Amino acid sequence: MAAPYEEKRLSMWLCFSGFLDLFGVSMIIPLLSRHAKYMGASPALMGALASVYGGLQLFSSPLIGSWGDVWGKRPMLLLCLLLTTVSYTLLGLAPTLTLAIVVRILAGIFKHSQTLSKAYLADIVPKAKHSEVFGRFSAFSSMGFIVGPVVGGHLMVAEGGFLLVCLAGSALFFINLCIVWYALPHIDTGKKNDNGKKNTAASFDFLNFFASMKKALFSDMWDLFLVKFLLTFSVLLYRTNLGLVLEQRFDITPKEIGYLISYSGIVGTASGFGVGKVADFYRDDSKVMIHFTVLLVAAILGMTFTPYIWLYVVCQTVMSFSNANLRVASTNIAIERGRNKETGVLMGLNQSVISMGRIGAPLLGGLVQEVHLVGAGLVGAVFALLACAIMVVVPPERSDSQAVGKEKKEL
Hints:
This protein is an all-alpha fold. Helix content is 81%, strand content 0%. The protein is built from 17 helices and no strands. α1 packs antiparallel against α7 (161-183), α3 (73-93) runs antiparallel to α5 and α3 packs antiparallel against α7 (161-183). The longest helix is centred in the N-terminal third of the chain and has 35 residues, at 4-38.
């Protein structure tokens, strides 16, 4: 652990790094589907590309993380930032759709700067301060997502807009690289083998990964994982090629789309400050989950079918507020129901289930958009409604008598 002053200095540098990271990403990603369509990609192909990216992220994240444990977070963070800088530069310069796909594969494998930054923070900050520091890191990162879409939308309307956006994003990642190089020291936390020597290689065990997924799906918490998957799936389905859908439905410019996406980030960030008051009012996380899932269904349907941009903004506000409350309530329930399990393992399984949703949703969303432009939103609302039905039949927050009965049965 670092000394208190050094710990604060390093954590603030990492917070600024997190801001630049999401600033650069959010400049480019909302405009990617529009550029892919310009290059000849169909909605189904765009969805498939997003699914492949999510799959690469799912499998490469544990591997990059394990390399960080062996060789150090700083070297791996520098490598990831360098290759991300290169990948986004090449994305802007790519003359063909095929080359753009290859470049996205490179980004899918090495875009893990947020994960490595959090791991570095965990190494330098005492466990008692993790919640405070990770909350600050997330807040700074979210600010980047508020600013990025607006800047990207303004650059996109200029001549050679997408190239300018990619070069600007790459410049932010290069600045981030320089910050990590000069401001963050190397911390040796390498794993050692039984002989006390540092391991020189790390690998990702696919068998253990799928065993963990099986454990999640068939544990006594299957309903909670399924609800989490369905809710993630529904929101990501709606967001499939969102910039392109908004442009066609409301005839708005990339600049205006950037404002809409940034507004969503602002509402999501602000909603975090009101989650505690909502929890105090309900005092029942199951009711929070059910009620805000109903609101989520209504918001998705409203955004999908409304012909008015002002009503779309209202529904977008409801959706962002609902998402913020659903995330906190589901996490609280998972921790409560997993009180006899390791919290780290539980959260890891929870994240794996969410990642599976990130793989499948863009692919299905692209396919239904081939049938109708609003198809992704409609199907997304159906998945959220299914999650609500499951929670009505099997309440997420079990009563004490149910929990005790379950534990005795397992004994």
